[in-house]
Design goal:
single chain, alpha/beta, Rossmann fold, 2 domains, five-stranded parallel sheet, two-stranded antiparallel sheet, 17 helices, about 45% helix, about 10% strand, binds adenosine-5'-triphosphate, binds magnesium ion
Length: about 375
Amino acid sequence: MPVPETIAQPGSGVETDTGPGRPQTAAEALRPHAEQAFAHELAALAAADDRPRPARWRLSPWAVATYLLGGTLPDGTVITPKYVGPRRIVEVAVTTLATDRALLLLGVPGTAKTWVSEHLAAAVSGDSTLLVQGTAGTPEEAIRYGWNYARLLAHGPSRDALVPSPVMRAMSRGTTARVEELTRIPADVQDTLITILSEKTLPVPELGEEVQAVPGFNLIATANDRDRGVNELSSALRRRFNTVVLPLPATPEDEVDIVARRVEQLGRSLQLPSPPDGVDEIRRVVTVFRELRDGVTADGRTRVKSPSGTLSTAEAISVVTGGLALAAHFGDGVLRPADIAAGILGAVVRDPAADRVVWQEYLETVVRERDGWKDFYRACREVSA
Ligand SMILES: Nc1ncnc2c1ncn2[C@@H]1O[C@H](COP(=O)(O)OP(=O)(O)OP(=O)(O)O)[C@@H](O)[C@H]1O
Ligand SMILES: [Mg+2]
C-alpha cells in the first residue's frame, strides 16, 4: 500500500510549511542536515561514480565510503573526511547496508555513532531525516504508525488518517531509516522491529493491509556501550543486525585532527573567528582528556585517577568550541589557556565531590610539573578556586 505523506519531511522535497518558524533555505538552518551541508560533495561523487549502485542508492558503496573517509576525485573535487578511523569499519558498515541485514553502530559515548549514521543515510539515500529518537518513552507508534485523530474520528480508519512513522516511510520509499539509542527503547517496543527487519513488512491490521518494504530500504541503529543493561537487545533482534563497533580515536594526533576539523566547522556555523594558533590548546584539551580517560599520563610514567563522567572526543569538541566563543567575545580572538580551563573543569567535574578530588590531584601532580603548562595551571587554579 502506498504510504500517505501527511507530514512534510525536511529534505524530502515535500516542503509545505515555509512560514516564519521555518528556515527558508538550508543555508539559513542553524544546523543543516548532512545532505544539505555536503550537497556539493555528494553531487560531485554521483557525477564521478561509475560503479554499480544497489537499487535506489544515490551512490555506489565505493562512493559512499569515499564520502565518509574523504579523498580527491578525478576532477579535483576534494571530499572532506567525515569519519576519522579505520577504513575497514566504514567498508563493513556500507556493505551491510547493501545486504538484507540492518546496521547497528555500537560504541562508548562520543565515538561518532550518530554522526556516521547521519552521513551514511545522506550518502546512500540522500535523506538523513527519517529518524526515530529512542528513549525510555518511545511508543510503538514511533516505529510503526500513528493516526491523525481528527481524520480517524471523522472518517474512520483509512489511509488518509494513517500517520506513517519514519521507518514506514523509508520502507515504502526504499531509503534508509535511522533509530537512535536503540537500547534505551523498552524491549517490547524494540521487538516491533523484528518483523520489519526479517519479513520486510509492516502490517496495518486496522486496514487489513500491509506496507511492504521496497528494495533500497534498510535501517541504521545506534546504541551506547554504557547503556548496556538499561534495555538489552533481545537476541532475536540482535540477529537481524550486523554490529559495527566504533572505537575511540587510536592516537592523540587522530583525536586532535578530529577536534580541529569539527571545531572549525562548528565555529563557522556559529560565526566565530577561526583562531590562528588554536591547535596548541586543542592538543592540550585532547591530552588532558586522554590521560584522564586512560588513567595514565601520555609518557606512561604517572598513574592518574579517572573521573566519573565520559571524556570523549565529543566533549573535547564542545570544550574547545566554548573556549573559542569566550576568546571571540571576551578576549582578543586567540584561544588561550584561560578560555579552555573553565570548560575542562566543567567536563571533568560531573560529580562535585569525587571528581573534584580527581581533578585536584591531576592538576597538582601532572599539570603543575609539565613544561609549558604554567599558564594553563594558573588558569585552572583560578577557576577551581
Ligand atoms: N572518529 C571520529 N571521526 C570524526 N568525528 C568524530 C569521531 N569521533 C568523534 N567525532 C565527533 O564527535 C562528535 C560527537 O559524535 P556523536 O554525537 O556522533 O557521538 P555518539 O557516538 O553518537 O555519542 P552518544 O553515545 O553520546 O550519542 C561529532 O561531532 C563527531 O564529528
Ligand atoms: Mg549519539
